[in-house]
Specification:
Elements lengths: L1 E5 L3 H13 L3 E6 L2 H11 L3 E5 L9 H12 L5 E5 L4 H8 L6 E5 L6 H12 L3 E3 L1 H7 L13 H11 L4 H8 L3 H14 L10 H11 L20
Helix pairs in contact: 2-3, 4-10, 7-9, 7-10, 8-9
């Protein structure tokens, strides 16, 4: 797996490079700003990119904008975003095209090497990997949206889907049968208005509904709705 890293903290980027090399990944470029990241992606065409939300010069959202542009220009390039804080707007923006291949992890997660590498591989394969802390903070939602119709167990299943887990792992985490997980997920799709025609994209669109507060049936995947607030 070929990786481009966009991270201005030299200690962190060097650590990521060593970690990934030890896990059999090839880090083809390490850059410190958004423009250099876009150039590296165009030159190396990596399998996945790891991008810090905040990059020079303003250290606000250059990384996110560079990641979104890279996905537009390079066929939904899988992106794993790293952030110091939970910022819901950015998670929603990344998932808004409904194509998958997106991860959003807090930097503290890197220290849990097994979890981090598993998340990286899931994203590279076209799945999603949302940090459990991101998911936990998003559980406090406004009333009146389609998610309110989900049962507690269905919401738990959806939260684990948002973290990128497959059915077998969800069953293990919830201590229920595979059939029960299948039933919960089928109910989630039905309640969020995600038809069988969505097939492989339904899990991604369900996660987007979870993050954005709107069901996939309400509108085709497009720009993320503006958030009410940014969680920090």
């Amino acid at each position: 797996m070929r990786v481009v890293i966009a991270e201005d903290n030299v200690l962190l980027s060097s650590g990521l490079e060593l970690l990934l090399a030890a896990k059999g990944c090839e880090v083809v470029a390490v850059v410190g700003d958004g423009e250099a990241f876009l150039e590296a992606v165009a030159e190396h065409r990596p399998d996945i990119a790891i991008v810090d939300v905040r990059l020079p010069p303003s250290f606000r959202d250059e990384g996110i904008h560079a990641a979104l542009r890279a996905r537009r220009e390079h066929g939904a390039l899988p992106i794993l975003v790293l952030s110091q804080y939970v910022e819901r707007e950015y998670a929603g923006e990344l998932l808004s095209d409904g194509r998958g291949g997106i991860g959003y992890l807090l930097k503290d997660r890197i220290g849990r090497v097994g979890e981090f590498v598993d998340a990286l591989r899931r994203v590279a394969a076209g799945g999603t990997a949302m940090d459990p802390e991101v998911v936990a903070q998003l559980l406090a939602r406004r009333g009146g949206d389609p998610l309110d119709s989900l049962t507690a167990r269905e919401r738990e299943s959806l939260a684990l889907m948002a973290q990128g887990h497959d059915n077998a792992t969800i069953a293990e985490r919830m201590r229920i049968s595979d059939n029960a997980v299948h039933k919960h997920i089928g109910n989630i799709f039905a309640k969020l208005g995600l038809s069988p025609d969505d097939s492989g994209h339904r899990r991604v669109r369900a996660v987007l509904a979870y993050l954005d507060g709107t069901a996939g049936a309400a509108a085709p995947p497009g720009p993320a709705a503006a958030p009410d607030e940014r969680l920090r």
